[in-house]
Amino acid sequence: MRLLITAGPTREPIDPVRFLSNRSSGRMGYALAEAAAEAGHDVVLVSGPVTHPAPEGVSLIKVETAREMFEAVQTHLSSCDAAIFSAAVADYRPVNVVAQKLKKTADKLVLELERTEDILGSARSKLGFQGFLVGFAAETENLIVHAREKLERKGCDMIVANDVSQAGIGFDSAENEVTLCLPGGRTIHLPRQSKTALARELIACISSSIQSPESSIQ
To answer: 185-191 contacts: CB < 8 A, separation 24 or more?
Structure first.
């Protein structure tokens, strides 16, 4: 099958030298892309700025901002059987980007922010995607509650929920531990392991779900 995977952070510019971003390293998304390619799938990887090399056999599209990521997804999503949105997209961006470097002239600086494009939330409603839709929920509290709400609100077939408040997993780590939230109130816990191993499990679950929806994930 053909998969679209998003990975890494986005950077929302403040001025020519500063930006708003987050701690995402992109490791999970790149591990998913590598695992999908190893399994024989055709993969389009839309990546924010990271330091990882492109996995072998993957079509890599590099972006910086949430808007650029949205546009890349919009271009390629309709040709895909499944989409995995693992990127940590910035929720807000500065309303005005200053053309020159801001100087340190005052004790306080106020930035006016506006919402960025909701890429996962747009997949069904705006982009008309009918394939298998996977989102990620990186939370610091009420993990399952927030993940279930996201599953319903954004029309996903699966939410991969991870508690980023725990040391050693999640952002900027080589390991992760997640809970898969599925329709009908089902959950599957995948214990702490390398992101490479976890990615292989996730790709296998998604492939099984698409091939046999009625009996895929138990």
So the answer is: 185/148, 186/217, 187/144, 188/217
Over the stretch 35-89, which tens digit does the pLDDT of each residue have?
A: 999 999 999 999 999 999 999 999 999 999 999 999 999 999 999 999 999 999 9
Q: What amino acid positions are annotated as catalytic residues?
A: 22
CA distances from 17 to 13, 71, 92, 152, 187 (A): 8, 24, 18, 39, 43
Dihedral pair phi/psi, residue 120, rounded to 5° = -65, -45
The DSSP annotation for 145-195 comes to: HHHHHHHHHTT-SEEEEEETTSTTSSTT-SEEEEEEE-GGG-EEEEEEEEH
Q: Which two tokens stand for residue 158?
A: 């699966």
Which DSSP letter does residue 9 get? B
pLDDT score for 101? 95
What is the pLDDT at residue 216?
46
Distance CA 140, CA 169 (A): 12
